[in-house]
Amino acid sequence: MKILQRKSLALVLAGTLTTQLAACGTVFYPERKGQISGRIDPVVAIANGVGLLFFIVPGVIAFAVDFATGAIYLPGGRRAELQPNATPDSLNDSLYASTGQRIDWQQDMVLVEALGSADEAQQRLIASR
After folding, report:
1. Contact (CB, 8 A) for 80 and 86
2. Is the pLDDT of residue 1 over 80?
3. Each residue of 41-70: pLDDT tens digit?
4. At what angle do helices 56-69 and 42-54 cross, to 10 degrees?
5. Of 6, 43, 45, 117, which residue is 20 to 30 A from 37 by alpha carbon distance?
6. CA atoms within 13 A on the CB side of 47
């Protein structure tokens, strides 16, 4: 009877350690792998934190794996960066690849301007609100 209890306890402990070493974000949201940065998902952070409460080393490993793979970040944390030699045609191609729609740059409501810096673009966006 005592041998059965030890084997059961060892099996439960091995299963728990295995799931903690796999990292919660990687298990819960495998589609998030590859993200570079963004806002941290509180569900994943709390689940990894529970691992820290029970087993320090597997909890630290779970956090390390989730940060390394990017699975701890909420989706949509990408930043848009403009190429220095962007043209309306290259922007149209990029937008079509992302959304499946093209922009008619000849419309009266479309204003195309060259801006000197990202700060100037931000100021113009704030002023247009």
Report:
1. no
2. no
3. 888 888 888 878 877 877 788 888 888 888
4. 150
5. 117
6. 21
Q: What is the pLDDT of residues 109-124, one digit of tens each?
A: 666 677 777 778 777 7
Could you count the other beta carbons within 10 Å of the beta carbon of residue 43? 14
Distance from C-alpha of 15 to C-alpha of 102, rounded to nearest angstrom: 51
Residue type, 77: G
Give the separation between CA 91 and CA 101, rounded to whole angstroms: 12
CA 13 – CA 15 distance, rounded (Å): 5
Q: Look up residue 80 and give its two tokens.
A: 């848009």
Rounded-to-integer distance, Cα 123 and Cα 84, Å: 19
What does each C-alpha distance from 44 to 2, 8, 36, 64, 109 come to in angstroms? Answer: 37, 28, 16, 12, 44
- Given this model, what pLDDT does residue 128 score? 63
Judge contact between 62 and 17, C-beta under 8 A.
Answer: no
